Amino acid sequence: MVLQETTNQPASSEKIPVVLTGYALQSLRDSGYSLSAALGEVIDNSLEANANNITLHFEESKTKSGKRHIHQIIIIDDGDGMELDVLQHYLQLGYSTRYMRTDTIGKYGVGAKLAALNYGQRIDVWSRTNEQEWHHVWFDLEEALIQEREGETVGIAFPNIESIPDNIFTYAPKGSGTIVVWSKVDRLEEGQQASDAQALKAEVKHELARMFRYFLNEGIRISFDGTDLLPYDPLYLMKGTWADREIFKYYQRLRKGANKENKEHSLPLPEASKDHFSATQIAQGNIKVGGSICTVTVTLYPSEVARQRGMANDNFARKTLRLQDNQGAISFVRLNREINYTNVPRIFPKGVEDRDRFIGIEVAFKPELDSYFGVRNVKRGVEPHDELRTEIRTFLNSYIEEARNSLNNIWGEVARKSNKGNGENLLVLQAVKEANITLPKSRVKTKISNQEKSQIFVDLARDVVGEDKKKQEEYQETIKDLPFVVEFVDIRGNLLIDTQHIDGKVIITFNTRHRFYREMWEPLRRIADAMPGSISGDEATKAARRSIEALTLLIIAYGKAESMDDNPREHFSELRSDWGKFTESLMGKVKDVI
Ligand SMILES: Nc1ncnc2c1ncn2[C@@H]1O[C@H](COP(=O)(O)OP(=O)(O)O)[C@@H](O)[C@H]1O
Ligand SMILES: [Mg+2]
Questions:
Q1: Which structural domain, as residue segments, surrounds residue 154?
Q2: Same domain? 148 vs 210
Q3: Other C-beta atoms within 10 Å of 550: how many?
Q4: Which has the minimum average pLDDT: 268-282, 377-391, 527-541?
Q5: Which one of 347, 375, 407 terminates a domain?
Q6: CA–CA distances in Å: residue 164 to residues 81, 90, 160
Q7: Can you give the CATH number for the domain in which 222 is found?
Q8: Does residue 300 sit in the same domain as residue 181?
Q9: Ligand 1 — pocket residues by CB below 6 A?
Q10: Which pLDDT score, from 0 to 100, does residue 13 have?
Q11: How far apart are CA 322 and CA 228, in angstroms?
């Protein structure tokens, strides 16, 4: 169809219609609705008609070229339904029973039609306000274009009584309600929008679950493809969400030991019965603008989601919870309905960071502020304007930093907890195990009995984890395959380290009573575990200076100890050279594991 045809119409002195219905609608098909945004328009209408149950259904088939595609989309609600005149006007562009109101979701009178035409060329609507007959109206863009070319006026017929199609019958409400069918869908072939129908549906479900989370949370049912949507709350505050379910499943798997990924081993497990994982609310505040207010909420995701440093990108974070989508994203909610979930440029202090994917941000406002948020007829692309944006940025500034700091706290805490009773340096020891494979083998011949050997391990376990028998066993299991074990234990006396060699394994105990530990190791450890920003520069400098002193004194004390021997150059040269060599080699292989 070429638009030029229309210019061939004879010139006339008569008035002409402002809009060429068919052609204009054809152009308006590209209004930029994503599929979920388009479906959202229809769901909005259902909600405003007081529906409690909304059902979505996609009909799939193959195109002539053999590609799978979705050719029909059906949306059913059990709302109030439409009286005959409203039903006829449903299809009229610009018609709304709530035109430009500020207390309703819809207000432009174009959503239902443009969204439909964005994906299909035909709209059918059945509606009724009681359990009597269904009334039907339809609009077909293909037919409209033909009529228009033949010089006819395109119009919408008065609703006729017509029963609903068979494939819809089972889903139809018993009483009042509305059924919207988009057909001649020509923009949802596989490969368009998503790789296949399955992926497309998953995406749509996820989006709708977030967009309508407040309604779903209050008990409105939206069912898609036979399953009811669970709300998805990017703030992680609601209960019974889709994330709650996934987190629960994740820890159940971990509990059963199904996941052997190294880091997941040492994760603290929540109580088995825990099924709600709530974020911490960092801040909630109102921003006054244009005689109204918008409410900004900042949350930090639960520790069960934040887990450990460095896990923001594993399967659970990325594929299951899709946390990368949340990195720097703000959810804009208008009258309880999310109209945009997006990154607003330059609104995060010092730019967006990886760890920001654990921070939830929502900005909620009423339609009175539509112009400040740049709300358009297509519910996307919302962005707060100049003054408002500055205010939101100022608000977020300190709270995002606070959330980032709390996150580091959680991570520091988890690191400390998982270290206790597991050998303080487990991460290093595991890395050394790898590195040790290529080092020369131990030449020690262990001369003690098996019973003595196992006693050494029992004693070590008691020193490290205390009297709890079960913990002792767990500890022994952890160190079983490690070639080197380093433990920090309370040894009386001046010994700095003690070593034991058992069947090629080296057990080193480091005396926590020793000054070297107390005045150097411990302060450094505290700084390493603390959240950045919480340690003063003074404190850090002091610790660094004391460390240099301590290391220098350690070397001097070593020289002094050698001098107690009558021929140290001969007796210790091999030890010195091996020590230097292995330190060099291990430091090359083990790096940044803590
Ligand atoms: N599911 C529905 N149930 C009852 N009435 C509806 C439904 N969908 C649409 N309507 C009516 O059709 C009108 C046009 O819908 P729409 O084009 O989405 O405009 P808007 O939502 O902006 O008013 C609505 O104002 C409403 O009166
Ligand atoms: Mg609407």
A1: 3-228
A2: yes
A3: 18
A4: 527-541
A5: 407
A6: 14, 18, 12
A7: 3.30.565.10
A8: no
A9: 41, 45-46, 49, 77, 79-80, 82, 86, 90, 95-98, 106-113, 178
A10: 82
A11: 20
Indicate if 13 and 149 belong to the same structural domain.
Answer: yes
**Is residue 36 scored above 50 in pLDDT?**
yes
Number of domains the chain contains: 2
Q: Which segment of 229-233, 475-479, 528-532, 539-543 scores lowest on mean pLDDT?
A: 528-532
Candidates 317, 374, 301; CA nearest to 344 is 374
Could you give the C-alpha distances from 429 to 180, 425, 435, 594, in angstroms and in order?
Answer: 63, 6, 10, 10
Q: Of 90, 95, 123, 124, which is best to mutate to test ligand 1, by the most ligand atoms within 8 angstroms of its C-beta? A: 90
The residue with greater pLDDT, 567 or 467, is 567
Task: Please give the mean pLDDT across all residues of the chain.
Answer: 89
> Are 163 and 246 members of one domain?
no
> Which 8-state DSSP code applies to residue 518?
I
For residues 279 and 403, membership in a common domain is answered with yes
Q: In what order do the strands lie in the sheet with 337-343?
A: 280-289, 292-300, 359-365, 329-334, 337-343
Residue 26 Cα distances to 23, 89, 141, 156, 383, angstroms? 5, 19, 7, 17, 28
DSSP secondary structure letters along 439-454? SPPP-----S-HHHHH
Q: Are residues 30 and 100 in the same domain?
A: yes
* Dist. CA 130 → ligand 2 center (Å): 22
| Cα 40 to middle of ligand 2, angstroms | 9
Are 206 and 294 contained in the same domain? no
From the number of C-beta atoms within 10 Å of its C-beta (0-12, 13-18, 19+), residue 511 rates as: buried
Co-location of 183 and 319 in the same domain: no
Q: Across residues 280-286, what is the average pLDDT? A: 96
What confidence tens digit (pLDDT) does each residue in 478-510 have?
888 899 999 888 787 889 999 999 988 999 988
Strands in 505-511's sheet, in edge-to-edge order, are 484-489, 505-511, 497-502
How high is the pLDDT of residue 193?
A: 75
Look at ligand 1, atom 25, and give the residue with the nearest C-alpha. 96
Residue 7 has pLDDT above 60, yes or no: no
What is the DSSP-derived secondary structure letter of residue 362? E
Measure the CA–CA gap between 327 and 304, rounded to whole angstroms. 18
By alpha-carbon position, which residue is closest to atom 27 of ligand 1?
Answer: 97
Please state whether beta strands 221-224 and 53-62 pair in parallel, antiparallel, or not at all (unpaired): parallel
Ligand nearest to the CA of 99: 1
Given 407, 424, 454, the domain boundary residue is 407
